[in-house]
């Protein structure tokens, strides 16, 4: 519900406007002074303000300026019975959306308010699009504009049309479940259930019952028949997260389900046909797990029909600003804050940070800022210390901070120092060659040559 603020020292005007706009389904707040208006704009998410230019001893133009300082995006309609062309022009120059003279008709008020709110909605959408296209659907849009993100989007759109099994790989926090949901939402199964389970969070002894269900009396505590998650996902999608943590015995049973398209409840004697699309995900190297004899090779190939790899955030730094802007807008609204944008310096620091926790860490950082701060701009000092320190020069500690083995000649010592500096920079960037080259202020080709030279 849109929230509108009427600022007028005449009570009957406020009551009249409240009556007219409340009947249209809007929430209408009233302020009799500039100070009350400023307090409300600072504490509430106001979509539109209607401001009388003559507030007793206060000048409405000054009130307009102060409101815009608090919320630069606030739309304001000027209402006055003492208007002039000069005051109208001045208020419009200061960012007022429209100018109305008292007395006004109810229909005219309704029309201009609806037009203003539509304009506000369009402005917010443009701001979101400027920071990222959010082109994958789901409970939270998947935001990005990097080449790596666009490749994932293309893969999702392609596989969504085909009912094949999908294996999503990537580090923790990269958004594997969101990608799985997007596959489901774009597929013909979108009207069916999307059922997710973390295979690492359930003891092996209970996982079979969770996935396939059980019959009454099949084990101690089985007081009634229970459907499993595969049955719940019939004609839909089941998402098996952390599939690499599943034990070998359960892997064999899952393999049979994928092959036969049937399940058998624990304690049952008959199979049940199922029509389920399986999407699995892992942050593990399954080929390494196969070599260690802890993951079945035949199951891997059953799951890996269509692989999608989500790169870590440090390898798609072009997405960081778009994600930060989206989370900032979302949490600012949720917590009643006034954040509107991220400063260029804060964006630079976030782009230089390695984000070991990936998108999840970025989301948590922005949420914490919105809890503690109120905006309107996210500044470098709002960021945690580990992110601020990521912007410091790679060699800030100086050459003395690097141990050089004794007995080396000058050229060998220089090579040792250079190798150490590159190692340190690679570690700080999480292995991102582009970021490392930028921090060392050398071309990427030169960095790659030196990495080959030193066996890095």
Automatic annotation (TrEMBL):
**Span of domain Sigma-54 factor interaction:** 142-371
Q: Which InterPro entries match?
A: AAA+_ATPase, AAA_lid_NorR, HTH_Fis, Sig_transdc_resp-reg_receiver, Sigma_54_int, Sigma_54_int_dom_ATP-bd_1, Sigma_54_int_dom_CS
> Domain named Response regulatory: which ranges?
3-117
Q: What is this protein called?
A: Sigma-54 dependent transcriptional regulator
Modified residues annotated as 4-aspartylphosphate in this record: 52
Membrane-traversing stretches = none
One Pfam family per UniProt: AAA_lid_14
Q: Report the domain of life of the source organism.
A: Bacteria
PROSITE patterns in alphabetical order: RESPONSE_REGULATORY, SIGMA54_INTERACT_1, SIGMA54_INTERACT_3, SIGMA54_INTERACT_4
The cross-references to SMART domains, in alphabetical order and at most eight, read: AAA (SM00382), REC (SM00448)
Keyword set for this entry?
A: ATP-binding, Nucleotide-binding, Phosphoprotein, Transcription, Transcription regulation
Q: What is the residue range of the signal peptide feature?
A: none
């Amino acid at each position: 519900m849109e929230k509108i603020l009427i600022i007028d020292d005449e009570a009957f005007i406020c009551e009249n406007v409240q009556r007219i706009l409340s009947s249209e389904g809007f929430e209408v707040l009233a302020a009799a002074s500039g100070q009350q208006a400023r307090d409300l704009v600072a504490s509430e998410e106001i979509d539109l303000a209607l401001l009388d230019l003559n507030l007793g001893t206060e000048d409405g133009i000054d009130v307009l300026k102060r409101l815009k300082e608090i919320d630069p995006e606030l739309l304001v309609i000027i209402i006055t019975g003492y208007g002039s062309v000069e005051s109208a022009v001045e208020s419009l120059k200061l960012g007022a959306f429209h100018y109305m003279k008292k007395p006004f008709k109810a229909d005219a008020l309704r029309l201009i308010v609806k037009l203003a709110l539509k304009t506000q909605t369009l402005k917010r959408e443009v701001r979101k699009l400027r920071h990222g296209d959010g082109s994958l659907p789901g409970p939270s849009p998947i935001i990005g504009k990097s080449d790596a993100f666009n490749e994932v989007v293309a893969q999702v759109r392609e596989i969504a049309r085909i009912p094949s099994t999908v294996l999503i790989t990537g580090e923790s926090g990269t958004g594997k479940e969101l990608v799985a949901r997007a596959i489901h939402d774009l597929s013909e199964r979108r009207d069916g259930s999307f059922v997710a389970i973390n295979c690492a969070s359930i003891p092996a002894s209970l996982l079979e019952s969770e996935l396939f269900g059980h019959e009454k009396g099949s084990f101690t505590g089985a007081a009634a028949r229970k459907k499993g998650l595969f049955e719940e996902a019939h004609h839909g999608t089941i998402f098996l997260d952390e599939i690499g943590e599943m034990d070998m015995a359960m892997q064999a049973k899952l393999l049979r389900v994928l092959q036969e398209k049937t399940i058998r409840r624990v304690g049952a004697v008959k199979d049940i046909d199922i029509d389920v699309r399986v999407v699995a995900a892992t942050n593990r190297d399954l080929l390494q797990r196969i070599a260690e004899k802890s993951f079945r090779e035949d199951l891997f190939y059953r799951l890996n029909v269509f692989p999608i790899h989500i790169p870590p955030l440090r390898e798609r730094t072009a997405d960081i600003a778009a994600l930060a802007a989206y989370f900032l807008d979302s949490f600012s609204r949720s917590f009643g804050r006034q954040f509107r944008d991220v400063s260029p310096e804060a964006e630079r620091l976030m782009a230089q940070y390695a984000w070991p926790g990936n998108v999840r860490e970025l989301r948590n950082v922005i949420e914490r800022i919105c809890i503690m701060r109120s905006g309107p701009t996210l500044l470098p000092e709002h960021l945690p210390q580990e992110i601020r320190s990521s912007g410091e020069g790679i060699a800030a500690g100086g050459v003395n901070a690097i141990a050089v083995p004794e007995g080396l000649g000058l050229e060998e010592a220089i090579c040792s120092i250079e190798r150490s500096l590159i190692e340190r920079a690679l570690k700080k960037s999480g292995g991102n060659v582009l970021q490392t080259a930028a921090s060392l202020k050398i071309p990427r080709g030169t960095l790659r040559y030196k990495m080959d030279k030193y066996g890095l």
